[in-house]
Write a structure and sequence with these properties.
Helices cover 85% and strands 0% of the residues. The protein has 281 residues and is mainly alpha-helical. The longest helix is centred in the first third of the chain and has 39 residues.
């Protein structure tokens, strides 16, 4: 049943995400076309083409940044729409456990957030490669040269296994963070739906208040430890320098565990709230 829920949500979310991906691809193509025209018709001053090209490039950069950033909120809105608003009456009549519904929707939303990040990265890389390729003296090996320099450096050769493990842990942490962002919004929606009026506003309020509370508590805890462990922190810089790879691995492992636990908590709260009381619009 989880697969069927995710299949439906892929179609539902795809109606919003796929046009967005197509739009960012078309914008990149338009910006490339303007760059080609500007290079083919050089001028000493400002021209209409150069202004249009600058505007298109600005929109492209903004789009590449915004697409991954807004994806959790799009997923969260569709979750709210299908679980709390009028569509919720149909959703909650399905012969499916609330846990299956919520986990399926959060998994699908997280996957689309991952897709959004990959789309932005791929479009950026293709745009940069094609833009550099307009130069007649361009050599594709120039792009790979910095990578070769790093991979042939003594530092990389001596710590290759640790560096690759750190990169892997970092990527796992980023992926879990994406799923955590979706789960957090779903949890806030489950809190907002408990209210009798203005459920959307309560959902936004819960998001802002919990975010602020968690940030404040984190800063207070870090400040507390900084005071009571002042001697340790005074030597921390040297300790990190002496064991930088081990330190980075511990940091990313902590991030992975923290994000994984957070995902479980977010889903558990959402499941509990929807199980205990359904109060749709």
């Amino acid at each position: 049943m989880l697969g069927k829920i995710m299949k439906y949500d892929f179609k539902n979310l795809g109606k919003m995400f796929i046009p967005m991906y197509i739009g960012i691809g078309l914008l990149a193509m338009f910006s490339l076309m303007m760059s080609v025209m500007e290079n083919a018709m050089p001028s000493n001053g400002l021209s209409v083409i150069s202004l249009v090209n600058s505007g298109a490039l600005f929109l492209l950069v903004a789009g590449l940044i915004l697409v991954p950033m807004v994806s959790p909120f799009i997923s969260g809105y569709k979750f709210f729409e299908s679980m709390v608003k009028n569509q919720g009456y149909l959703t909650h009549t399905l012969p499916v456990k609330k846990s299956t519904l919520i986990i399926g929707k959060n998994l699908t939303g997280g996957i689309f957030c991952l897709f959004s990040t990959l789309v932005s990265i791929v479009v950026f890389v293709i745009y940069v490669v094609l833009t550099w390729g307009m130069n007649s003296r361009f050599d594709f090996s120039e792009i790979l040269e910095p990578i070769r320099v790093v991979m042939n450096s003594p530092e990389y050769m001596n710590h290759k296994g640790q560096i690759l493990l750190i990169i892997f842990l970092f990527l796992v942490g980023v992926v879990l963070q994406m799923f955590g962002n979706v789960g957090f919004i779903s949890m806030c929606a489950s809190i907002g739906q408990r209210m009798n009026k203005n459920k959307g506003a309560w959902t936004v309020g819960a998001y802002l208040i919990i975010n602020f509370a968690v940030s404040t508590v984190t800063q207070l805890v870090m400040g507390f430890f900084a005071v009571i462990c002042q001697g340790y922190f005074n030597n921390l810089e040297q300790l990190i320098e002496d064991h930088k790879y081990s330190y980075l691995m511990l940091v990313f492992l902590f991030a992975i565990v923290f994000n994984a636990v957070s995902i479980v908590i977010y889903n558990a709260i959402a499941i509990r709230f929807f199980d205990k009381k359904i109060n749709m619009e």
